[in-house]
From TrEMBL:
Keywords carried by this UniProt record: Electron transport, Heme, Iron, Membrane, Metal-binding, Transmembrane, Transmembrane helix, Transport
Bilayer-spanning residue ranges: 13-35
Protein origin, superkingdom: Bacteria
Positions of the Cytochrome c domain: 71-151, 170-249
Cross-referenced InterPro entries: Cyt_c-like_dom, Cyt_c-like_dom_sf, Cyt_CIE
Protein known as: C-type cytochrome
Organism field: Chitiniphilus purpureus
Length: 250
């Protein structure tokens, strides 16, 4: 056998090996495309959003858990940030975005009870209670009111019963909680004439008419301050926030 024939034979063998190495993956891809043709399935992960990939990786039957506060006592803001934000912040699965006036307008027009019913029972892509089975009906309603109000509604969040909070409202705990989430926005920096927390001179001027008068005025609202500073809970709870601020100036 001549050297040229040996070389030619070796080239054929190498060519067959390369064809097998390259051709097999192409064959697999062709078969995959054949079976998914027309199904709308895209095999490329690059076309999937991070949210979609994350959702597919979630365990079947996974349940969201709301943190912060005893069951039944969590505010609309707390529920939104723990549960609802995951979809309503970016508008996933058709959920109206937080503070999107246009997106919420038609829903707000349905009324608070209808919106709450849909949120509790689930609707379209939203599971019952947003996937947080431990939420009470009132907690879901508070979240609905919180989101709708941010888009222009004037719904009232269901009040938290004193028993759910462990008895009488304590200004040192509940008051601080409300101050940190609501009152701080103005009273920390003294915006729109609001007396700063701990400013004895500013608060003493208001206390000349008596503590009860300060509390009543704060609940009713005055000048640039809306009723209860925009707080959606009960008057008794908001009173704790006022007392918390008054005590800080004593």
């Amino acid at each position: 056998m001549s050297g040229s024939n040996v070389a030619g034979g070796a080239k054929k063998v190498v060519g067959m090996i390369l064809a097998a190495v390259v051709g097999f993956p192409l064959l697999i891809l062709f078969v995959a495309k054949l079976f998914t043709s027309g199904s709308g399935v895209d095999l490329s992960l690059s076309t999937m959003t991070k949210e979609a990939i994350s959702a597919r990786l979630q365990p079947v039957g996974a349940v969201k858990v709301v943190e912060g506060g005893a069951p039944g006592s969590r505010s609309g803001k707390a529920v939104y940030e723990s549960v609802c934000m995951s979809c309503h912040d970016a508008g996933l699965a058709g959920a109206p975005k937080f503070k999107d006036v246009q997106g919420w307008a038609a829903r707000i027009a349905q009324g608070f009870e209808t919106l709450s019913k849909h949120a509790i029972e689930g609707l379209n892509g939203m599971p019952p209670r947003g996937g947080a089975a431990d939420l009470t009906d009132d907690e879901v309603k508070r979240a609905v009111a919180y989101m709708a109000n941010a888009a222009g509604a004037s719904f009232t969040e269901p009040a938290v019963a004193a028993a759910a909070a462990g008895g009488a409202v304590d200004p040192a705990t509940k008051g601080k909680e409300i101050y940190d989430t609501v009152c701080m926005a103005c009273h920390a920096a003294g915006i729109s004439g609001a007396p700063k927390l701990g400013d004895k001179a500013a608060w003493s001027e208001r206390l000349k008419k008596g503590e009860d008068n300060v509390i009543a005025t704060a609940i009713k609202g005055i000048n640039a301050m809306p009723p209860k500073g925009g707080y959606q809970g009960s008057d008794e709870e908001f009173k704790a926030a006022v007392l918390y601020m008054l005590n800080s100036a004593k």
